[in-house]
Amino acid sequence: MMTTPLSTDAGVTVTVHDGVARVVFDLPGASVNTLSVARVRALDALFAELQRDVSVRAVVLLSAKKDSFIAGADIDDFVQATSIAELSAISRDGQGALDRLADGRLPVIAAIHGVCLGGGLEAVLACHWRIGTDHPKTTFALPEVQLGIVPGGGGTQRLPRLIGLTPALDMILIGKTVRAKKALQLGLIDELVHPAILERVAMGRAREFAAGTRTRSRSTGHGDAKSFLLEENPIGRALVFRQAREKTLEKTKGHYPAPLAALECVQAGYADGVAAGLAAESRQFGILGAGDVSQQLVSIFFAQTALKKDTGLPDGERAAPLPVRKLGILGAGFMGAGIASVAAPAGTLVRVKDTDWTRLARGFGAVRGVLRERLKRKQVTRQQFDDLMSRVSGSTDYAGFADCDLVIEAVFEDLAVKQQVVRELEAAAPRAIIASNTSTIPITHIAQAAAHPERVIGMHFFSPVHKLPLLEVIVHEGTSAETIATAVAYGRELGKTVIVVRDGAGFYVNRILSPYINEAGHLLDAGARIEEIDRALVDFGFPVGPITLIDEVGIDIAGKSGPIMAEAFGARLQPSPVLSRVVQSGRTGRKGQRGFYRYDSAGKKGAADDTIYGMTAHGTSARVSLPAEQIVDRTVLPMLNEAVRCLEDGIIRSPRDGDIGAVFGIGFPPFRGGPFRMIDALGATTVVERLRALDAQFPGRYTPAPLLVAHATERVPFHASHTADAGRARQGS
Ligand code: NAI
Asked: In Å, what is the CA distance from 460 to each residue of 66, 468, 644, 648?
């Protein structure tokens, strides 16, 4: 018997055939399926109806979306609910619906192809048989902690009982993604099949369940835990929990409450039963969701979503991006090789030129190293690895450049060399857009050498290119709309978060870094200890402190930008005396095994090098101990101030871009949202007052930006709210 298809409010279509209900999730008007509060209720009602219908004996749950099963909960509901009580209620509703699904009469078979995330995975965990496709797009994760919350639909209870405590904690506390094959090994899914037969196999299983020839063999998260060696007894579990707690604290440094809260939920479930675990989960979901950290992380998520849809063009301008099938790279050095290693996996043919074969070979070695890492992590097969390597070729002349769509130059940081290669490229690659990866030279100057300056642009990658997610696209006065659109679209194809900035010394990221680094130097000159400065800023939330950062970037490289910034902006961005002296000393940082810190021959960082103190204005006399807040104020406040100046000067287009550039470009603490979000949280008035106090002590270095003063006077924040960018994301501006 076959019933007519029934479409529901939940975005699913139901057909019943031979006792099997085929439930297909296909949210209208959306590229992925998400679970909103209303949809969960509608699905709950639908399943209640199916449970009552005696003609139905099993259910198959499918998605009609391409490469996506369920992408998670609908974040709009989450941001609209602002109180702890509302958020906890959302979680309790979800838990209730999934409990009814798990405990119901009907066996439910989840047929999963594509991403299965967050609430989507929690729904799947409540099903009775899980089949995943053997496809790279089929992945499982609970990414809630990345938004500062805990899973709210029973995930903290069902997952450990299904796959064991240790792998479950990896997923719950870090948001680790699991691929289909691994999911099978873990027992997260029961079967792995080719996408072409997913539905057929799922329907077959459903018929077996309906006929009673197959029974629910695995846990559905109600306490019937399998044996997991160490974790099966309370003592072993206590050990796992303790280690997880220590590891989490070490990683979060106390700045991110969600992973610890999630751990407590899992622990509560084992100590006092699943009901207690679920209660803890919904309580924490509410508390964390209404908290500051989650709001900042959500704001970053929205800003990123908005940027994914941003063409990068000024308001009202339109231009279609040109396809980039072949990319030319000039310079197989550190950056050139890095760019090649992300371009090949994006499907681009890559042609690299350097001045000699030795350098080219070294560059290829670097590309192979990055791609081999993918192979090691099983992100690509051996065959795919070979294919990726075969996409990259090179030469010491311009052979193979004629049909390049885009050429990125990453040659030495020298204006004359850059201008020379632009001239050469216009002849060798006549239709290519020419992008410069310069970190300090104004694009305007490079473009002066071009017959077609409209095709010249900056594409500033950060090192290591395969790890750092930001790309600054730099536009000079004459860059055409088509060139901008192409650079932005291609940067996104490379997996980068792209911000478009106007040309100017330091662009955005290096400009706001400049006062931060300089002031760290001034603190050294004033007698502070190297480790003390770094520790204060790591405690503030940066991944490394400013002094370590100089060693990492290279003292020689950092040293080049100092004078350029001072020339452009005067006394405000004058490098500190100690920085200039250390640059002159010839130390290069980690790569030369000698910097502000000592390094062993393997490049491992040791203690600070005390001999540096002899180069400070304070001299070798006893160091002075400064309170951490003072160190933070003196380095971070001028960075915030400079970010506002960049907005004022039109270098960045919006506070949103400024926040994203800082978070993704220099690791500005994500839980603080970015410089503009931090100013909003402190209040512009407070920031202005503190800057003025410092300016009185150190005239000229801390003068508040006029725009910051205006925000303080009018008491208006830079962002309307933490969801302000959501509207933009939806409109796709
Ligand atoms: P690098 O010194 O490692 O590599 C430069 C390469 O360019 C060398 O292999 C050199 O032989 C080659 N080269 C020089 N002239 C050439 C020409 N006419 N044709 C072809 N190849 C030529 O330098 P790195 O670090 O890769 O920097 C390259 C560019 O990227 C610079 O403009 C730098 O400012 C910028 N940059 C560097 C970052 C870093 O962290 N190293 C970060 C962001 C940008």
From this structure: 33, 11, 21, 22
Kindly state if the Cβ of 615 falls inside 6 Å of ligand 1.
no
- Of the three residues 270, 290, 310, the one that is the final residue of a domain is 290
pLDDT number for residue 2 = 46
Residue 629 known to be catalytic: no
- The answer, yes or no, to whether any atom of ligand 1 lies below 6 A from the CB of 463, is yes
Cβ neighbours for 35, distance < 8 A, ≥ 6 positions apart: 43, 70, 72, 73, 74, 94, 119, 120, 123
**What is the SS3 assignment for 113-124?**
CCEEECHHHHHH
- The closest of 339, 346, 472, 465 to 409, measured between CA atoms, is 339
One domain, residues 439 and 533? no
pLDDT in tens, 385-434: 999 999 999 999 999 999 999 999 999 989 999 999 999 999 999 999 99
**Closest residue (by CA) to atom 19 of ligand 1?**
354
Are residues 672 and 587 part of one domain?
Answer: yes
* pLDDT, tens digit, 9 for 90 and up, residues 150-187: 999 999 999 999 999 999 999 999 999 999 999 999 99
Q: What is the pLDDT of residues 582-618, one digit of tens each?
A: 999 999 999 899 999 999 988 899 999 999 999 999 8
What atom in ligand 1 is closest to the CA of residue 553?
40
Q: Which has the closest alpha carbon to 654: 674, 633, 681?
A: 674
Q: How many domains does the chain have?
A: 3
CATH number of domain containing 710: 1.10.1040.50
632 and 537 together in one domain: yes
Give the model's pLDDT for residue 220.
45
Measured distance CA(133)–CA(126) in Å, rounded: 19
Which residue, among 428, 475, 419, has the nearest Cα to 448 in the 3D structure?
Answer: 419
Does 474 contact ligand 1 (Cβ within 6 A)?
Answer: no
Could you tell me the residue range of the domain that residue 516 belongs to? 509-650+652-728
The vertex-406 CA angle with 403 and 412, nearest 5°, equals 115
Examine the domain organization and report whether 515 and 484 are in the same domain.
Answer: no
Cα 329 to ligand 1 centre (Å): 10
Domain assignment present for residue 378? The answer is yes
388 and 434 together in one domain? yes
Looking at ligand 1, which residue's alpha carbon is closest to its atom 35? 438
Mutate to test the pocket of ligand 1, among 351, 352, 353, 354 (most ligand atoms within 8 A of CB): 354
The answer to whether the CB of 330 is under 6 A from ligand 1 is yes
Same structural domain, 258 and 109: yes
- Whether 297 is covered by a domain: the verdict is no
334 close to ligand 1 (CB < 6 Angstrom): yes
Does 122 share its domain with 251? yes
**What is the C-alpha to C-alpha distance for residues 160 and 177, in angstroms, rounded to an integer?**
15
Q: For the chain, what is the mean pLDDT?
A: 93
Q: In this structure, what CATH number is given to the domain that contains residue 55?
A: 3.90.226.10
Per-residue pLDDT, averaged over 16-40, amounts to: 94
Give the pLDDT of residue 730. 30
Nearest protein CA to atom 3 of ligand 1, as residue: 333
> Pocket of ligand 1, candidates 437, 446, 557: which has the most ligand atoms within 8 Å of its Cβ, to mutate?
437
Nearest-angstrom CA–CA distance, 355 and 363: 12
Domain containing 478 — which CATH number?
3.40.50.720
Residue 302 falls inside a structural domain: no
Query: Burial letters for 257-268: b for 16+ Cβ neighbours within 10 Å, e otherwise?
Result: bbbbbbbbbbbb
- For residues 477 and 334, membership in a common domain is answered with yes
Rounded to the nearest angstrom, the distance between the alpha carbon of 357 and the centre of ligand 1 is: 15
**Tokens 């992380």 identify what position?**
297
In a domain, 165, yes or no: yes
User: Residue 243's Cα: distance from chain center in Å?
Assistant: 26
Task: Single out the residue in 266, 290, 314 at which a domain terminates.
Answer: 290
